[in-house]
Write a sequence for this structure.
């Protein structure tokens, strides 16, 4: 057992606020060389990913053209992105959106080039994954599902909005019923019987993702406990490489701050932060942190064995 704690949550006393931008951003080639060397020296690798990774992989919620292609009726109403939380849409249109959106981003069967490149770069090293993404792209592209912690939930499940119980249900059967009754031209679900209800109490249901205190996280806690044990059980002299990709400031307390805190409290840990918009790294990590101020695709394509 390690003698040093490895906290995943930031604390007021351990998270300095100053950050420093790289004075002269490294070229893609230089960054690849450094990351390749750090990978070779690492005993364990923790991949920590935010929305930027899936966006780089082709699932950009703000992609207006893709939105228009998938949801033309909503586009005609003036909507321009998949960020529709709180939009005043009637239930038949909102569930039409959810069904099309989740079917596209969560259930696609084609392998994703960028996620596959990430998996290949990790190779046979001992590794874990923590991601705020709810699209299961890690598990669908070569990462073992029990190594992936998704604290924000998974589009693959639905829950009661009350909630009347801690039970959740696979979303696929509900979505199939909605899509069978969905009218693409109007954006509406034509048959109200296809609109999902809680099988237990009849209340509204919602994707099992973290949007408020009603979120049912029971299905994800075992993976979180496994990740903490995996970190705590590492020998005290083992080298940990944290590769953080696409985690900005929408929800910094989920990925970005915890990863900084983890490296700060783990003597032989290093942080690689890959983020074209927010590449800054904490000044106190010094040479143990590498800022990569460009997209994951530029880095990962050059890391394949």
């Amino acid at each position: 057992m390690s003698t040093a704690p490895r906290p995943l949550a930031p604390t007021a006393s351990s998270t300095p606020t100053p950050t420093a931008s790289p004075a002269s951003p490294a070229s893609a080639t230089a960054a690849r060389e450094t990351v390749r060397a750090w990978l070779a020296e690492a005993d364990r690798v923790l991949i920590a990913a935010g929305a930027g990774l899936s966006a780089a992989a082709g699932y950009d919620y703000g992609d207006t053209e893709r939105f228009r292609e998938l949801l033309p009726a909503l586009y005609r109403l003036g909507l321009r992105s998949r960020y529709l939380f709180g939009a005043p849409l009637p239930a038949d249109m909102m569930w039409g959106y959810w069904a099309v959106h989740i079917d596209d981003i969560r259930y696609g069967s084609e392998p994703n080039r960028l996620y596959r490149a990430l998996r290949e770069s990790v190779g046979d090293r001992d590794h874990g994954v923590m991601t705020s993404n709810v699209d299961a792209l890690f598990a669908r592209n070569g990462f073992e599902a029990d190594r992936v912690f998704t604290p924000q939930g998974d589009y693959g499940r639905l829950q009661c909005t009350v909630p009347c119980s801690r039970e959740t249900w696979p979303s696929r059967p509900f979505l199939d019923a909605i899509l069978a009754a969905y009218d693409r031209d109007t954006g509406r679900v034509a048959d109200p019987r296809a609109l999902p209800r809680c099988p237990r109490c009849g209340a509204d249901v919602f994707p099992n993702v973290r949007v408020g205190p009603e979120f049912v996280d029971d299905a994800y806690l075992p993976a979180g406990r496994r990740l903490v044990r995996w970190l705590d059980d590492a020998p005290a002299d083992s080298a940990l490489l944290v590769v953080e990709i696409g985690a900005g400031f929408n929800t910094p307390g989920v990925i970005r701050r915890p990863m900084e805190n983890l490296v700060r409290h783990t003597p032989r840990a290093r942080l690689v932060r890959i983020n074209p918009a927010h590449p800054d790294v904490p000044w106190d990590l010094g040479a143990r942190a590498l800022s990569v101020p460009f997209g994951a695709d530029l880095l990962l394509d050059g890391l394949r064995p």
